[in-house]
Amino acid sequence: KADNIVINGGDSNTSVDCDTTLWHYVYNPERLQIVDKCKNVTGIIEESSADEDGDQHMLLKLDNGQEDLLTKKNKKKKQGDLVIEAVCANKTTLKKVGNTCNGYINKIQIQKLGDHVKVTGSLVIDTHNGWSEIHPITKMEMLK
Fold it and tell me: What angle do CA 87, 92, 93 make, to 5 degrees?
């Protein structure tokens, strides 16, 4: 299967590199329904915390024109923000994660609250919670 995925009707780039190997480090991937294997989104980081599964869990206030990526649950439970997750960015404290992150160190530069960023990764629906997410994140870049 191709690791270089062309996104449909994309933004300034016609193709995006998403690292499909990151799926090996997603805890419980069965719960994530893929909407777009590789998607770019832009916005402001409004919240950021370490999840016990080792992921860095963030909320992204999307820039205008991307509202169609949100579900009702994003609007109701996440203040209208998109959930974005960097896998294995922290120490796992949840026993049932097991060795999902063993031997892997996430090299993504996690930006700070209030930063305007471009995030690249898989657009999914978390079927347990009903909201949409970029999970796993392949790349996060500061925007000027």
Answer: 145
Residue with tokens 């898989």: 122
Q: What is the pTM of this model?
A: 0.87
pLDDT per 10-residue tile (average), the chain, 144 residues: 38 65 94 97 97 95 97 98 96 89 89 96 97 97 91
| CA 127 to each of CA 101, 124, 130, 131, 136: distance values in angstroms, whole numbers, following the listed order | 22, 9, 5, 7, 15
